[in-house]
Amino acid sequence: MDDTESTTTSADENTGNLCDNPTRDTLAEGLLGLLKPTVDQLDDRVRATRISQLELKQQIDSLNEELLKVRESLNNHPDLDPYVKKLITCKHKVTVVLNILQASQDRLNQIRRMVEKDKPKVKVISEPLSEPEQGTSGVSDKGSIN
């Protein structure tokens, strides 16, 4: 062997062996198994919260309409403006929360699509591989040192 030849392996030489790493495959499958139920549960809770927020917004709108009708029907016009303003402020806050929840659900849906997209890859990668035959040099047929 020449003095100019390097005995170390570079990252480029080992990139082909990434699919043959059962430890990495097991860890990836385990992480996906841990994250998927949590993401599903979080997605369900976000959906339920969004539904309740929409119902609350509808109730606030109907209450606002009823208060306006009551105000119009009274002869002495009590001062309901501060209460109407409070209701409008609450409606605005509900709308902001609804927008935040929508953005969160969109992100969760993206994560779910990525997890579902990676599932077939993990199954293919996690299939057991046959052990390569070793020569007398201790180097397998694929070029990695055992």
Report on the architecture of this protein.
Pfam families: Snapin_Pallidin. Residues 1-15 have a biased composition (Low complexity). GO terms for molecular function: SNARE binding. Belongs to the SNAPIN family. Keywords: Coiled coil. By secondary structure, this protein is mainly α. 69% of the residues lie in helices and 0% in strands. It is built from three helices and no strands. The protein has helices at residues 11-14, 22-73, 81-125. Helix 2 (22-73) runs antiparallel to helix 3. It is rod-shaped. It starts with 10 loop residues before the first helix and ends in a 21-residue tail after the last helix.
Q: What is the alpha-carbon Rg in Å?
A: 31 Å
**What profile does the largest beta sheet have?**
none
How many strands?
0
Distance between the termini: 21 Å
User: Given the helix and strand composition, which structural class is it?
Assistant: mainly alpha
Q: Total helix count?
A: 3
Keywords: Coiled coil
GO molecular function: SNARE binding
Region (Disordered): 1-22, 121-146
Family: Belongs to the SNAPIN family.
